[in-house]
Write a structure and sequence with these properties.
It is a single chain. The protein is mostly helical. Helices cover 60% and strands 1% of the residues. The protein has one domain. The protein has a two-stranded antiparallel ribbon with strand order 1-2. Helix 2 packs across helix 4, helix 2 runs parallel beside helix 8 and helix 5 packs across helix 8. It is globular and about 60 Å long.
Amino acid sequence: MNLGLVLIPFAGLVVGIVLLWGVVLSWPHLAVFGGMFLLTALGITVGYHRYFTHRSFKTFRPIAVLLAFLGSMAVEGSLLTWVADHRRHHQHSDEEGDPHSPRTHRSGIWGMLKGLWHAHMGWLFSEPPANRDRYTGDLRKSRSVRWMSRLFPLWVIVGLAIPAVLGGLLTMSWFGVLLGFIWGGLVRVFFVHHVTWSVNSICHLWGTRPFKTKDDSCNNPIFGVLALGEGWHNNHHAFPTSARHGLRWWEVDASYAVIWAMSKVGLAWDVRIPSPAQMAAKHR
């Protein structure tokens, strides 16, 4: 199943490029791609990661369900599986037991390349640990979380159907349905996947490390922007429960901007951010 989730979006990218040959890609399809990318990526960053995994803020149950729905449409696994893997990553970061560290394979150039491949997507084909459920005991108490996680395959189908329908409605053509499905569905999933996986791989190899951590997490400005704030990875590993990953004014963090906006209209509260004293204590 994981192999299919990796290869099918890539096939969609190839088909999309082929269909572009001699065809002008109109603004509706670009809008569907951009909108679906932003919504589902935020489902991962704000929902799966900062809310469900680290509990960095609180919100109403309907908002939590919406975040779980958007994150599921990113096709990165069910909610409980994703949270379990990420919590395990923090417990064993860059050590034995980390599901996707590039460091555990490093020995020379070839070892580094093997580690990079493993951290980026090779780990998806590894046997999951038998004790994965112990990382999500708190979330399993919630009926809505169990329900959203169990229906993951349905949300994947919905996430592919929505852009197809939008593409058809915006162009009033069956070809628009096809392009909406390819660009807003398959190609969008491809880009969301590789941006997210780059945080696991590239952000543990290249970047700056302003804070003291037990691992090799790095701040990478490219993925700080592309991954909607997740690329400030050293900041995140220094303060895992912080809702804000871009801790300095110039560290763009679109995900935190969404959380901040939610807090201003009463949709989020108890937003956790490290104090200046806490940051100074961990600064190198």
